[in-house]
Amino acid sequence: MSIKVRGRGSYVSYIVTYFSYYVCLAVFSTALSVYLTGIGKSRAEMSFIISASNLFGIVVTPVIGYLNDRLQKPRGLACVCMLLAAVFAAVFSFSRATLALYLLNGCIMGFAMAASPITERIASSGRFRYGTVRVWGTVGYAVAAQACGVLMQYTAPVLIFALFCIFAVTAGAGFLLTGDIRCGEPAGENPRGERFGFLKNPSFLLFTVCSFLFSGGNNVAMSYCPLFLQELGLKVSVIGAALAVSTLVEIPVILWSNRFMDLFSGKALLLVNFAVMLLQLGLYGVIYHAAAAVAVMLLLKACSSTLFMMIRLKIIRNIVNEECVSTAQGVESAMNAIGGVVFLNLAGLLSQRKGLHVLFLFMAGVMALGLVLGLFLRMSNAKKVFS
Fold first, then answer.
1. Rounded average pLDDT over 71-94
2. 10 Å Cβ neighbour count for 4?
């Protein structure tokens, strides 16, 4: 007990937690599409299976967010989510039927992603600056991307799920050792109507639409980029290395988040993010050389997906009352998940009939729509989240 108390809230506990958590996300974000096609699944089947993570997240994430606001037990909830994800991942590794893989992937990523809003809240509300904590997630993601590439090319691909289980359990234990976070007044003291009052806020609703569109583009980019590079002639281990390096490029963005995230408005950052994702997908749509595709990924990936995670937290914290933040994050994450479901399944059909280049150009058009809608967003920049 004494060891546990001494370790609780230490910087090492945050390193272990974020490193392990993002290792888990990387296994299913960077390797699953290649794994599924490798065991004989078509692109449509692969997209169907991957979309389950978003579909289940529509239910699980808002529920976890609501429970967090009610119970004020974020670390315990995150721990339970990761342990459940580990159990389902172990079963997933032995499954081959498409429907079973769909349901299991939904459970795994539904619970894992339900912990994501909690990780962002812990990073922004603990005693350590956001960037110094969150950066270890980037390192973990990069290490896992490389490890998955090596495991899939030189060993039994199923070992990537053993990697997931080990680090899911480690992350669950790590959550319990992180320090307390600053919360608003207990949600139980507020009328139910006030806790969900943000659902009447036009700015919040518009942001959820933008989140829906961006999530669609981001999910398609993450799921189809490894297949795209493979189609252009790269080996799986090389793809893993490229994904790892592209993730490490995120480190300056995260470490220096305190210098720009609170300086600029959430609206300005959102517009820049849509523009970067538009450029990234548009370039994928016209590139036919592996080296050029890797260069685009290295230059633009970090400024889109990672930045959006921080933008989501910033905008919600500036729109919603503090005691409702976790619930609002859950609702917004549900819209994020719906975007993933819709666009991943559409991507499976479109890529199978028209090819990956047409798919990327179509998604670039979706990002252009999000950019236009973002121009109408209205919000303050009063709360400092990353300083």
1. 91
2. 10
